[in-house]
Design brief:
173 residues; alpha+beta; five-stranded mixed β-sheet; 38% strand
Length: 173
């Protein structure tokens, strides 16, 4: 609150000094000196106020957000979600890898039975963009199912955050 009041006071004084310079036609050295000093005081106050909320050690203070950790992500082909699939159909998963080397794709039933996993495959991936083909092997199952993808999404120092994404499909026998 004190800083705000000081900034408003300095602003009013700066406007007054600017009027003084204008009215004197720029010939008054005292008016110009006062305007420069008030402008410098305003800049100093604003910079001190903005740096007060920043973090950092020693002389290296930064108000910038740190860079986000490397992120892995996936995309299914557009026609996969809520589609009807049969045994032997292949679905394509596009996977961009920044770190790590494993992606697990599974087809699981929608019910809560013990044998939920119909088929599963683990892929070794390289850094960069990968295209993974997953073959549907549901046996004699027909009904609603989920295509699940499991991988490490973020790696921040020693910690990794895993992701399990899924989409619903219908298996037609």
């Amino acid at each position: 609150m004190k800083r705000t009041i000081m900034l408003i006071g300095l602003g009013i004084a700066f406007v007054g000094a600017s009027l003084w310079v204008m009215l004197s036609g720029g010939r008054s050295a005292k008016a110009i000196r006062a305007k420069f000093r008030l402008g410098g005081a305003i800049l100093t106050l604003v910079s001190l106020t903005s740096l007060a909320s920043c973090e950092g050690k020693g002389p290296f203070v930064s108000c910038y957000d740190p860079a986000p950790p490397p992120t892995n992500y996936h995309r299914w082909n557009n026609d996969v979600a809520n589609s009807e699939l049969r045994n032997g159909d292949k679905v394509v998963l596009k996977y961009v890898c920044q770190f790590g080397n494993e992606v697990k794709v599974s087809l699981v039933t929608d019910d809560m039975s013990e044998d939920r996993v119909l088929c599963s495959q683990t892929y070794e991936v390289a850094k960069g963009e990968n295209q993974l083909e997953f073959t549907i092997e549901a046996g004699d199952y027909s009904g609603r199912a989920e295509l699940c993808v499991e991988y490490d999404k973020y790696q921040d120092g020693d910690e990794t955050t895993s992701l399990m994404g899924s989409i619903f499909v219908a298996i037609v026998y």
